[in-house]
Design a protein that fits this description.
It is a single chain. With about 300 residues, the chain is an alpha+beta fold. Among the domains are: about 80 residues, no CATH class; about 120 residues, Chitinase A, domain 3, CATH 3.10.50. Helices cover about 55% and strands about 15% of the residues. The strands form 2 sheets. Strands 4-3-6-5 form a 4-stranded antiparallel beta sheet. Strand 5 and strand 6 form a beta hairpin. Helix 6 crosses helix 11. It is globular. The chain starts with a helix and ends with a strand.
């Protein structure tokens, strides 16, 4: 089946890129909702627009990522429909802030230019908005379900903060991966390292990571070391810039970090502000882990099958 789908996909990609009409075939189903060739090609187009690093992967790998992306979106949307009924978001200001951050990260100066580029690439701005709203509402559900389960040792974090005027800021990229058997940890890690060496970290993150950051190559951006837990900081201190950590055990699987860059910051440190940043970082890490765990849990309630 995989070999057939790969041949079918390459054929469709050639036809699609040549502007030819393609036959719309059923690829798989999620419960009673069919996912077609056009859906998958549309998702591939979408993935390539928002992350150029995906072009480093093979057609079959891109196909699998597109299928996983559609599946995740559809399951989240169906689950949210049970909680909210009609999926909509009332806070336009917050939504617009997310949209602005997205197009600025892609290098666009304004919304009009961004919309024009989406249109040129046959990507619906409305569908782009719907995906953003789905992610926002999903995060709200995760927050409401698991906020009371977050464990923050404030005193321990307070001791972690250094009382000096110099701190390091580290540019981090992440890959979060899962294994079904403890024996697969090293095997999966070696496979990811091989892809990092051949394809680059960003492409490896797109291919392997189950984190929300996978869509932008695992990019976490600049993070002050005072905002990083001791467990993770200890691993980062073992490696130099451009290198990656050994697998770090987290609740939803394993974490690999790349120390992409590092710099020293000269500033007066406000201990309370740094404590707040560290607490926020810890909360976000735990909520992301709970998000993956909850998705894997509800995914079992949906019937996913090939026709």
């Amino acid at each position: 089946m995989i070999k057939y789908l790969k041949i079918l996909l390459i054929t469709f990609l050639l036809m699609y890129s040549s502007g030819l009409t393609i036959e719309n075939k059923i690829i798989f189903k999620i419960d009673n909702e069919i996912i077609t060739t056009v859906d998958v090609l549309g998702e591939i187009n979408n993935l390539k627009f928002f992350n150029k690093d995906i072009n480093q992967l093979t057609d079959e790998e891109i196909y699998q990522i597109a299928v996983q992306s559609i599946t995740k979106y559809k399951i989240k949307k169906k689950s949210l429909s049970k909680n909210f009924g009609k999926i909509e978001f009332q806070n336009d200001d917050y939504l617009n802030q997310i949209i602005q951050k997205t197009y600025e990260n892609l290098g666009f100066q304004d919304l009009k230019t961004f919309k024009n580029e989406l249109s040129k690439n046959q990507i619906s701005f409305k569908k782009f908005q719907e995906k953003l709203i789905t992610d926002i509402l999903w995060n709200q559900v995760i927050f409401s379900k698991y906020y009371n389960k977050l464990v923050i040792d404030e005193e321990k974090l307070r001791k972690q903060i250094k009382n000096n005027k110099k701190i390091n800021s580290i540019y981090l990229k992440e890959i979060v991966y899962e294994v079904s058997d403890i024996k697969e940890i090293e095997e999966k890690y070696n496979l990811i390292i091989k892809d990092i060496n051949v394809l680059g970290f960003e492409s490896a993150a797109i291919k392997h990571s189950v984190s929300n950051t996978s869509s932008n190559g695992g990019d976490l951006g600049w993070i002050n070391e005072n905002s990083i837990s001791n467990k993770i900081l200890n691993e980062l201190e073992k490696i130099s810039v451009k290198n990656v950590t050994e697998p770090i055990r987290i609740s939803s699987g394993f974490l690999i970090l790349q120390k992409f860059d590092e710099r020293e910051i000269q500033k007066d440190i406000n201990n309370e502000e740094e404590l707040k940043k560290l607490i926020d970082f810890e909360k976000n890490q735990q909520l992301n882990n709970y998000s993956n765990l909850y998705y894997n849990k509800i995914k079992k309630d949906f019937k996913i099958n090939a026709p």
